[in-house]
Amino acid sequence: MFKKYLIVFLVSMVPLIELRGAIPYAVAYELPLLPSYIIAIIGNMLPVPFIFFFAHKVLIWGKDTSFKPFSKFCNFCIDKGNKAKEKLLSRNKNNVYIALLLFVGIPLPGTGAWTGTLAASFLDLDFKKSVIAVILGVILAGIIMGLVSSGVVGTINIFK
After folding, report:
1. From CA 154, how far away is CA 148, in angstroms rounded?
2. CA triple 122-12-62, angle to 5 deg
3. For the whole model, what pTM was predicted?
């Protein structure tokens, strides 16, 4: 049992998979949903402070490295982040935290805590407000994934 909970914890820390993969794993192996949910949230949130404070600095450092593939990747991320920053901050800045919550909370590939926190770091948002938005988004994504994985919310058949 401990091993399965450990897997839930570790899977929830993996970028792009995160809690969206950990909850279905827990449901598939018939682990109790509430403890699995709490463990997945903790695992998903653990990397957030490191991402917020260090990822942007690593990208800035990496853009000038001599290893071209890494340098190109870093430049791509920085350029994309700066364009998004200009676009988002030209609008009402108060709504950016609600947008961050919804971005993290909607369980689609690439919209988890890792990406949301990196975006908050790029946007120079307040750490405390960003973490609150991200954790609420993770909770929302966990609820959605729990409902879908346990069969409460069925798939929508558009072909009927």
Report:
1. 6
2. 35
3. 0.83
